Hints:
This protein has 199 residues and is mostly helical. It is 75% helix and 0% strand.
Amino acid sequence: xxxxxxxxxxxxxxxxxxxxxxxxxxxxxxxxxxxxxxxxxxxxxxxxxxxxxxxxxxxxxxxxxxxxxxxxxxxxxxxxxxxxxxxxxxxxxxxxxxxxxxxxxxxxxxxxxxxxxxxxxxxxxxxxxxxxxxxxxxxxxxxxxxxxxxxxxxxxxxxxxxxxxxxxxxxxxxxxxxxxxxxxxxxxxxxxxxxxxxx
Length: 199
């Protein structure tokens, strides 16, 4: 199991802090947010907040961990659900990638928060690894169901999963509208689905 999935936040007090802090970061941005703002949003005293987190950077990393963990879990659930391969894959990409980012992008401080991605490199790497793992497994199941030997076609589940996520990353830079992103993602998924068809 991927490390990002192992980091489940189960302490209700921490979840309340992280949910409140996320709202404050989206409303004011990272640099303008204070520990007082976060304490108020979590309905607790500032000293009580410091018992849980040492500073707002620590809180931001914990939020990223929580959001990314939820994203991988949502993708895993969608891929294991019912429906055609393309429908399950689209649901996974929408929940884990497009919808997750739309709240941040729509925020007046979204650009500032996204710029902080570089300080989360280790977490983003784990998140991507978790998504690749589940997407590759779903591709493998579909190839086996269709009796397709990917290696004979010069492909692998890892290659196709990486191609999908690389395509989604590139698409994000070119298309900011979530609906446009969904259309582009659906086209990428269709290409992968065609590679998984027999004959």
